[in-house]
Amino acid sequence: QVQLVESGGGLVQPGGSLRLSCVVSGSFFSINAMGWYRQAPGLQRELVAAITSGGSTNYADSVKDRFTISRDNAKKTVDLQMNSLKPEDTAVYYCNAEVTTTRLRYLEVWGQGTLVTVSS
Question: Is pLDDT of 70 > 90?
Answer without folding.
Answer: yes
